[in-house]
Write a structure and sequence with these properties.
It is a single chain. With 77 residues, the chain is an alpha+beta fold. The chain has one domain. The protein starts with 5 loop residues before the first helix and ends with a strand.
Length: 77
């Protein structure tokens, strides 16, 4: 994915039939791009935790997620 947008993330979640048993981790730059697009669409309002279609979206702090990649994490402990 070249740039991760709100519409692209919604489509990814739907196409892959993701449920709330997972979370998505994004490179910090991709996370920022997604948040900015989300804020534009939702009138500068964002909920914490940040979720799209019930899937929590996290900013990668490990350095393991490449820019424009999506890392699906198992959220069930």
């Amino acid at each position: 994915m070249e740039k991760i947008t709100y519409d692209a993330m919604r489509n990814y979640i739907l196409e892959n039939e993701l449920t709330d048993s997972v979370a998505i981790s994004l490179h910090p730059d991709s996370f920022d791009d997604l948040v900015m697009d989300y804020l534009d669409i939702n009138g500068n309002q964002i909920e914490r935790p940040f979720e799209i279609l019930g899937i929590e979206i996290l900013q990668d702090s490990t350095g393991n997620v490449a820019k424009s990649n999506i890392n699906v994490l198992d959220a069930v402990e």
